[in-house]
């Protein structure tokens, strides 16, 4: 278990570095280097970024700095939660959406 975490830690950290980092981490976690820890955080990071862009499109139509500010703060907190979990070597699902991301991207 500890070896799996150490082996997949770099992949997990890269998964939270923008949407491009999430895509790069998918390629880092291929066949011979695949770890459960890396896959877990790839699903979390990819889910955060994709839902941010999808929901952000609709939040933009609210045309309110309070709605936009709350939206950005919410996603920043989710990102920090996931990123700190990757740094600490923990598999903690992000609040509210983590289980959904794990099921949605289970093939990664």
Structure description:
Helix 2 runs antiparallel to helix 3 and helix 3 packs antiparallel against helix 4 (65-88). This protein starts with a helix and ends with a helix. The mean pLDDT is 92. The chain has helices at 2-14, 18-28, 36-59, 65-88, 98-104. By secondary structure, the protein is mainly α. The protein contains five helices and no strands.
Blueprint of the fold:
Elements lengths: L1 H13 L3 H11 L7 H24 L5 H24 L9 H7 L4
Helix pairs in contact: 1-3, 2-3, 3-4, 3-5
Characteristics of this structure?
single chain; 108 residues; mainly alpha
Distance between the termini: 19 Å
Order of helices and strands: HHHHH
- Global geometry: elongated
Low-pLDDT sequence parts: none
Brief synopsis:
The chain has 108 residues and is mainly alpha-helical. Helices cover 73% and strands 0% of the residues. The chain contains 5 helices and no strands.
């Amino acid at each position: 278990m500890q070896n799996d975490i150490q082996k997949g830690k770099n992949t997990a950290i890269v998964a939270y570095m923008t949407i491009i980092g999430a895509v790069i981490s998918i390629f880092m976690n291929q066949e011979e280097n695949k770890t459960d820890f890396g896959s877990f955080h790839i699903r979390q990071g990819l889910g955060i970024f994709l839902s941010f862009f999808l929901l952000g499109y609709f939040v933009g139509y609210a045309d309110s700095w309070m709605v936009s500010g709350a939206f950005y703060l919410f996603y920043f907190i989710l990102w920090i939660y996931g990123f700190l979990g990757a740094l600490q070597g923990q598999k903690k699902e992000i609040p509210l959406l983590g289980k959904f991301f794990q099921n949605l991207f289970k093939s990664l």
